[in-house]
User: Fold this.
Amino acid sequence: GGGGGGGWGVGGGRVCGPVGIGLSIAAASTVSSLASQQAAYSAQKQANTQNANAAMDAMRRNLAENNIAGANAREDAGKAGFDAALQAEKAQATAQVAAAEAGVQGNSVDSFLQELRGEAAMNAQTAEESYLRGQRTNAVNGENIVYDTRNNIRNLPTPQRPDYIGSIIGGASTGLTIANGLKAAKAPTKTT
Assistant:
């Protein structure tokens, strides 16, 4: 056995032949393709996990900022309501003092004070309505933050698992094509 001459295969023997060589190349190609597919699948899964975690972190920060904005709006509305009530009380006190100093009494003073109380009530109501609008906007913003985050995570690319069957079939087809090409190249040509 051994080592002599120019045949196909291991050690000079005819162990492999064109079909063996073709299938060996195809097997190596299939293994390489599957390894590449597995690496791409793993990389996409890892990227999706990182992107989902980043989206969740951003959502938590945005919700916290939204909650702070809501708390600030509550505080501002309370201050505006208090300021409106304080201004109304000052205006009424000033009007009462001015009327007393001028010696004015009766329906005209009562009517004027009633008008001041009405303005104060309207200012307080406006502050309350503004606050409620802000709270609704704040709530909608919070819902939108969560909704957008969910959509962003749902729209991450789906990792493609390796196609074992397709790769094996493709590799076998490639191997047979190579084998047929090698057989054709070795076949004697006829001359006429």
User: Anything to note?
Assistant: The CA atoms of residues 44 and 50 lie 10 Å apart. The two ends are 38 Å apart (CA to CA). Confidence is low (pLDDT under 50) at residues 1-15. Helices lie at 17-102, 107-154, 164-186.
